[in-house]
Every structure is written in structure tokens, then in C-alpha cells.
Amino acid sequence: MKQKILTLQTLYREGQIQLKDSGIEEYQLDAWYLLEYVTGISKASYYGDPNRELSAAQAEEYRKCIEKRSERIPLQHITGVQEFMGHEFFVNEHVLIPRQDTEILVEHALDKVEDGKKVLDMCTGSGCILLSILKRYQVQGTGADISSEALQVAERNRKHLALPQVEWLQSDLFEKIEEKYDVIVSNPPYIQTGVIESLQEEVRLHDPYIALDGKEDGLYFYRRIIEDAKAYLEDGGWLLFEIGYDQGAAVSELMRAAGYRDVECVKDFAGLDRVVSGTLYSSDIEKMNRINEDKIRKD
Ligand code: GLN
User: Fold this and answer.
1) How far apart are CA 168 and CA 157, in angstroms?
2) d(CA 297, CA 289)
3) How many angstroms is it from 125 CA to the middle of ligand 1?
4) Strand pairing report for 87-90 and 118-122
5) Which of 124, 146, 171, 221 has the most ligand 1 atoms within 8 A of CB, as the residue to mutate?
6) Is the pLDDT of residue 175 over 60?
7) Residue 108, Cβ density class (10 Å: 0-12 exposed, 13-18 middle, ≥19 buried)
8) Ligand 1: which residue has its CA nearest to atom 1?
9) What confidence score (pLDDT) does residue 291 get?
10) pLDDT digit string (tens) for 272-286?
């Protein structure tokens, strides 16, 4: 029996159709990325010779990848990588896939960091935030996460990016933190529990649940980190968060009420609130405490 010749173009078309039929919104892009992943081909060489034949093994592998993607397994869990800040990060089911929105947080943090500073990334996951900062500055970096599996991914990424040692701490928030930092940066879980079930399947079923769940009102981790970070920030140190588009006012207010100053909310490219930052001075905290004590004495 004569077998149908499998060219790059036939497979690519077949992949697009299958993904489209499965309701994958970015079916063209995803079918392309998977072709690139399986064959290592570039766009230029594809268009140079779209009728090049694929080996049976490659064709089979491509079809398997397309099948997985049709089942709504995220592209990044199939290819194992995601680009972030221009660097390649390994990902798996133990870490949140780095989002482009988070680059805004990194950019903003880079404004506060200088060589020689101490930086803590709370809820580091894949390590994408801290490692991107380390690509730019020679800082002493600590990444904390409750998940040891996540920290393994983060360390693998550090090695892959040929970066200097980082202190990875398996810690429930500040539980194991002992030192003080010039900059604390965090993209904590911030989705309201009730909203998680309405998220797309790729996120809801494949990103780690603990990386998403910000408890009832989505602000649980902001409250805890804002309060606890006070003991771990150097005088005049900065705390910076990624936030959900509708959390700018609430998180800014939490920071001001806790004694942080110069609280600023930064928007993303879509014009939505995305980052909140503020700085902490011990003199402000002492003043606040004195006012509170006076109030208690008067009451
Ligand atoms: N810091 C990681 C990131 O930004 C993980 C965040 C998380 O798990 N909530 O991608």
C-alpha cells in the first residue's frame, strides 16, 4: 500500500485543523510552535520548502503533541519551556507558567535594584522573577516557595541560565526567612477561590492550584506579606507585588495602612492595574506605633 507522503505543510495544516476543531483559540500559533518544537525548523526554512518530507517518527511525535494540546494541556507543558524577559525557563506542573504580565513587575523591580543589593522573591515558583533580576544585576538573591518541587524547577532554571548561586528556601511565606532585604518582590496567588472554576481549562487544571488560590477575597497573601515583610525589609526597602487588574486600590490601601509610603500602582500594556509598590521606613512605623499607643491610652 502506498503511504501518503507527510510533508511539513500537510502536517502543519492537519495540526491547525485539529486544534481549531478542539476549540483552541490560538490554533495557528500553537500548531506552529509544536511543529517548531518537534522538527526544530524555523519559519524561514519552512517557507523555503514547505513540501519537505517528515520522518515517520517526527510525524507521529507531532500528532501526539497536537493530541495533547487538543486535550487542553498547555503548550508550555508539552514543550516544557516558556520564554520570559527574553530568557528560556523550564516549567512543569509544579510551577505557574510565567506570564507576560509579570514582566511589568520585573521591569519595575529593576528600577529599585542595584548591584550589591539583597533581593527576596516570595512565592518564587519557576524563579522567573528573581532569575530575570539576576540576569541584569549582581545581587544576593533568595527565592522562597512552599513547594520543594517548585524550587527544584527554579534551581534547574538558574543552572540553565548560567547564573550565580541563589538561596532557595522552602518556606511557608516568611516562616524560614531570617535576614533583611533591600527589595522584596512577589507575585503571590491572587485569584479569588470562587473565580478559579471559571478560568480556562489550561489554567484551572494545569497550573498548580496553590499558585492561583488567593482565598476568599483574593487578598489573603497580600495581607500576610505586607504585614510580615515589615520585619524583613531594610530601612527604606521596597516591597513590590504583581496584582490582579481589580486589586490596585485594595492592595495600595493595605500597604498605606501598614505604614508603607510612596505607594504606587503601575499599569500594564493593556492599561490595567498590574503592580503595586511601596517603601518602608522604620521612622514611619515608630511614628505609627506611637500614635496607636496614644490612641489606646486615651480610649
Ligand atoms: N513567581 C512565579 C511567577 O511569577 C510564581 C507565582 C505564583 O506561583 N503565584 O510566575
Assistant:
1) 12
2) 12
3) 5
4) unpaired
5) 124
6) yes
7) buried
8) 124
9) 87
10) 999 999 999 998 888
